[in-house]
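Milestone 3.1: sequence recovery, worked example.
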C-alpha cells in the first residue's frame, strides 16, 4: 500500500553496510548472544544485540557520523577496538590533538593542524614515497567521538572516526576506530601501494601501541581485554 512507501524508502537510504559485512555482523552477533546466554555478561549481551541489528538493518550509526559507507565501496575499511587504562576525558584530549597520531600510527609520518577543523596529513609508503592530503573534522562531541574526512582535492579519498566510551566496571576507556581509504577516480599508483600496506593487523598493532602509550607502558596499569 502507498502509505508504507516512505518507510521503505527511509530504510533503503539508511543502508551503509555492504552485504558481506552484514552477514558477518549477524553471524558474530548470534555467536555472542549464545555465549551471553551461557555465561552472562552485560557487555557481551549488548554487543551481540548491536551486531545482530547491524546485520538485519545494514545500518551503522558511527559509519553515518563519519560519512562511511561500505554498501558500494571497493576501498578498504578498518574497524578495530581497544580498551585503555585511562579516563575518557584524557583519551579524548590526546586524540583530539591530531598531531599526536603519528606517535603510534606507523603509516602516518606527520599530521599538522591548520586550524580548529582542518589538518594536513602525510603518509609514508615503502620505497620512500610520501602521500599528502588535507582533512577536516566533520563531526565531534567532546569525550564521545571525532569524525574526519579528506578534502575533495586530495590525492586520496579517506575518512574515519574514533569513538570513546567508558569501559564496564570503570576499567578504563573503550576506543573504537573506523578508517576507510578509497582510490581516487583516476587511480594513483602510490596511493594503491599505500592501501596494500594498510591492514587490520597494522591498525590493531597501532592501537596496541596507543594502549601502551596511554597505559604509561607499565604492566601494572594494563587492562585485560
Amino acid at each position: 500500500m502507498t502509505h508504507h512507501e516512505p518507510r521503505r524508502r527511509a530504510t533503503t537510504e539508511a543502508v551503509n553496510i555492504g552485504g558481506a559485512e552484514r552477514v558477518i555482523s549477524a553471524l558474530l552477533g548470534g555467536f555472542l548472544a549464545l555465549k551471553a546466554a551461557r555465561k552472562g555478561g552485560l557487555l557481551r549481551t549488548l554487543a551481540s544485540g548491536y551486531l545482530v541489528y547491524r546485520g538485519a538493518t545494514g545500518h551503522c550509526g558511527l559509519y553515518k557520523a563519519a560519512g562511511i559507507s561500505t554498501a558500494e565501496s571497493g576501498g578498504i575499511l578498518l574497524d578495530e577496538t581497544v580498551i585503555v587504562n585511562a579516563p575518557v576525558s584524557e583519551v579524548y584530549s590526546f586524540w583530539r590533538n591530531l598531531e599526536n597520531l603519528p606517535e603510534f600510527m606507523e603509516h602516518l609520518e606527520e599530521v599538522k593542524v591548520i586550524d580548529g577543523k582542518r589538518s594536513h596529513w602525510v603518509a609514508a609508503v615503502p620505497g620512500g614515497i610520501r602521500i599528502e592530503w588535507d582533512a577536516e573534522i566533520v563531526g565531534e562531541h567532546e569525550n564521545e567521538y571525532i569524525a574526519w574526512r579528506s578534502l575533495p582535492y586530495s590525492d586520496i579519498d579517506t575518512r574515519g572516526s574514533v569513538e570513546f566510551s567508558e569501559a564496564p566496571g570503570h576499567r578504563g576507556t573503550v576506543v573504537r576506530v573506523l578508517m576507510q581509504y578509497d582510490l581516487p577516480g583516476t587511480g594513483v599508483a602510490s596511493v594503491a601501494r599505500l592501501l596494500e600496506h594498510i591492514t587490520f593487523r597494522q591498525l590493531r598493532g597501532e592501537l596496541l601501541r596507543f594502549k601502551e602509550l596511554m597505559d604509561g607502558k607499565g604492566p601494572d596499569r594494563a587492562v585485560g581485554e
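Residues 1-59 form one domain. The longest strand covers residues 129-141.
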